[in-house]
Write a structure and sequence with these properties.
By secondary structure, the protein is mostly beta strands. The protein is built from 1 helix and 26 strands. The protein is globular, with a radius of gyration of 19 Å. Keywords: Iron, Metal-binding.
Length: 322
């Protein structure tokens, strides 16, 4: 997934100083952003209120969109460093192609996990023949300094562990571990992500780790999370210090639960790059524009996505929250 903003704001985040160390209910507003020519997404991280939840540092929610007579998602080849991308669908298909030679069609309930490490390029498109609806989320995970120069890699997991409970609760563990169920996806920091489904009339409590901070993104319906009713596309930051999370739904609902140990390091995030300094970002941009380091998405027909101009002043740290 790419950040297609032609004037991306430099964002520096991480560190524990601004982590909310107790339970909170902080509702964060989404920012509408066009992804290519035909897909509008709701950007929920980073926002004016918060930049990270654990190592999760970028969250886009899109759809459900009727693309029966539209091209759907069309994101040309673009670069990444220092992060992992997580592709998650509720409806539709997305074709992933990257500079390692991987080509994979992702479908609902399947994990597409790309580790950029030192450098990778990829493209994402709705297949030529595609389903009527497109609905999903694209997320980034910041890599710690010890792993941000690791070899790039692609993982596709068609089957993921599921939790079920009485009263209409179920959850698919996308990354990390939840209530004893662990995803096969590779992680580099303590974190978790799960797709939680609540049938109408469900009322339950989900066990959490008090040392993790959490947030909930409603995908469909109107789940009630810790007493806060969430419309689709809403992100509720929950803070730390929770041993369990009260859940309730009057209609069939689904939401993503994201959590992790507060990220120790301060990072610079600009466009599709995560580094530790202005120099990291400037070098990555130059390498992309000169055709070095990232390789090519060989099976893609068309032009690559050019990088925006860097801001006129050096990128500086500003903390996890605004």
């Amino acid at each position: 997934m790419s950040n297609l903003d032609l004037r991306p704001a430099p964002t520096v985040c991480g560190g524990r100083a601004d982590v909310t160390a107790q339970p909170v209910r902080e509702l964060l507003a989404a920012k509408p952003v066009m992804l290519g020519e035909s897909t509008e997404v709701r950007r929920l991280l980073p926002t004016m209120g918060r930049r990270m939840v654990g190592a999760w540092c970028f969250v886009d929610h899109y759809g459900p969109d009727d693309i029966e007579r539209e091209p759907g998602m069309q994101v040309p080849p673009h670069p990444h460093i220092g992060l992992q991308t997580v592709s998650w669908l509720h409806d539709g298909e997305v074709l992933h192609r990257d500079s390692l030679g991987n080509e994979q069609t992702l479908r609902p309930g399947q994990l597409g996990l790309m580790t950029s490490g030192r450098a990778i390029a990829h493209a994402e498109q709705s297949p030529r023949e595609h389903a009527k609806l497109l609905h999903g989320a694209q997320l980034w995970v910041a890599l710690p300094d010890s792993h941000r120069h690791t070899d790039p890699a692609w993982e596709h997991h068609a089957k993921l562990p599921r939790l079920t409970g009485g009263g209409g609760f179920s959850a698919t563990v996308i990354l990390g571990e939840l209530d004893g169920a662990r995803s096969p996806g590779t992680t580099y920091t303590p974190l978790m992500g799960a797709d939680v489904t609540l049938a109408a009339g469900t009322q339950t409590r989900l066990p959490l780790r008090p040392d993790f901070e959490y947030a909930a993104l409603t995908m469909s319906g109107e789940a009630e999370v810790d007493g806060v009713r969430l419309a689709p596309g809403s992100l509720l930051y929950l803070g730390c210090g929770r041993a369990e999370l009260p859940l309730r739904a009057d209609v069939d609902s689904a939401f993503l639960l994201l959590g992790g140990e507060p990220f120790e390091e301060r990072i610079v995030m600009w466009w599709n790059f995560i580094g530790r300094s202005h120099e990291d970002i400037a070098q990555a941009r130059e390498d992309w524009m000169t055709g070095t380091r990232f390789g090519t998405v060989g099976s893609y027909e068309g032009a690559v996505l050019p990088a925006p101009e860097l801001p006129p002043v050096p990128l500086k740290a500003r903390g996890r929250t605004r």
